[in-house]
């Protein structure tokens, strides 16, 4: 950690500006060696300076250099950022000069790792930086920024403080039984306090389950007999949202898929062509892909034709989707009604047509309703979306369940205290109060270089 690191912080390519970031004890001194302009060692912190990067007497680039002295910097070390004219050759040359003058090339995420190791951010906040960079939807961004703002960390820290309070009281009781005036923790206290902690942890797990789809998007499969209007519906949904349509070749009727955003939530929609029994080799590839899409779907839009009587094939499809969240979409409601579903007792039925778009909004609203978009959009975003963090929460909950059994069996407080400590420790791992190198390497290698 004592060396000074450097890397290109912007994406490498031809652009208006590239930024090279340098951090460490020698940052200012090293940049000063290759900078012609003011003496950077003498400038005030958080100031920007015009000048040139030079290699001996040769001018490499015209730059603006920001000097930020510790501790109020991203890494809590001295940080210098060089704004060069964008361009692969000149940016690389500046970086090369920095390396020749004593910097080491930073590994992915190393600036953020230093911010963590120097205590500016905790692990949750570090992971939120990575989530923020990788967020594709507005909701993902909101969740990430919430993590970065420390709301989740605060929640975990509050629970840990609560636990610590109980633990220290028990310890005092055990160590100094002779003091009468010290508050004595009883089983009754634990019976009152432990459930409160449990509720908070369980809410985190529940919110995680509810919002898991937020990161991956909802997989939507459109199924139905040929000619009911599957492609028309897909095109309607995609066109309106100007999504990208991908054709997957190799099938008689290509499977078409595309992505749209509904209130900031991603829907991966796939038109499954036909799920028919077939002997045709090429078509059977399409069929097996359709079945796979069906299996992976979180939502099925099952299309029926309003202008035709229901067929056995339709009924077969309805029974195949029994165990999935399904919306029955009656298409072609601009034509005469011949379809009769009264005997089938179906839930979630929406009637549409793709000619004048009637019912498309009702269909979208139905999707929002089934996936609780309102709840997701209106809540406070103190969510865990990170697998590592949620695994630890679940571990803590398991210990807490053991603890509750112990409390009910009226075990001794010093035995129960061990579980309390275990929970406290496990929650500590989430924010990085303790960690091992392997975890850090694993976590930061997913970052981009320069972050
Ligand atoms: P798919 O085989 O299920 O993908 O069906 P298509 O989307 O290719 O549509 C089959 C035929 O039905 C096409 O001629 C469409 O123009 C027509 N079609 C689709 N939706 C509607 C609708 O809402 N009303 C009417 N009248 N025709 C439709």
Keywords, separated by commas or semicolons:
Gyrase A, domain 2, alpha/beta, binds guanosine-5'-diphosphate, seven-stranded mixed β-sheet, 14 strands, Four Helix Bundle (Hemerythrin (Met), subunit A), 46% helix, 3 domains, 15 helices, 451 residues, Rossmann fold
Q: Give the integer mean of the pLDDT values.
A: 85
CATH topology of the largest domain: Rossmann fold
Number of strands: 14
CATH level-two architecture of the largest domain: 3-Layer(aba) Sandwich
Bound molecules: guanosine-5'-diphosphate
The order of strands across the largest sheet is 3-4-5-6-2-1-7
- CATH class descriptor of the largest domain: Alpha Beta
- What is the CATH superfamily of the largest domain? P-loop containing nucleotide triphosphate hydrolases
Strand coverage percent:
15-25%
Helix content: 40-55%
Helix and strand pattern: EEHEEEEHEHHHHHEHEEEHEHEEHHHHH
Gyration radius (Cα, Å) is 30 Å
Number of self-contained structural domains: 3
Structural class: alpha/beta
Determine the N-to-C terminus distance.
16 Å
How does the overall form come out from the CA principal axes? flat
> So how many helices?
15
The biggest beta sheet is recorded as: 7 strands, mixed
Runs with pLDDT <50, length 5+?
241-252
Describe the structure.
The chain is an alpha/beta fold. It has 3 domains: 5-117, 2-Layer Sandwich (Gyrase A, domain 2), CATH 3.30.1360; 151-211 and 386-432, Four Helix Bundle (Hemerythrin (Met), subunit A), CATH 1.20.120; 215-376, Rossmann fold. Helix content is 46%, strand content 18%. It has 15 helices and 14 strands. It has helices spanning 27-33, 88-100, 110-117, 123-134, 138-148, 151-175, 187-216, 230-240, 281-296, 312-320, 360-370, 373-378, 387-408, 413-431, 437-444; strands spanning 5-8, 17-23, 35-36, 47-55, 58-68, 79-85, 104-105, 218-223, 245-248, 255-262, 265-271, 299-305, 326-331, 349-351. The strands form 2 sheets. It has a 7-stranded mixed beta sheet. Strands 9-10-11-8-12-13-14 form a 7-stranded mixed beta sheet, sandwiched between helices. A hairpin with a 6-residue loop joins β9 (245-248) and β10 (255-262). α7 runs antiparallel to α13 (387-408) and α13 (387-408) runs antiparallel to α14. 36% of the residues are buried. Mean pLDDT is 85; it is low at 241-252. The structure holds guanosine-5'-diphosphate. The site of guanosine-5'-diphosphate has 15 residues, from α8.
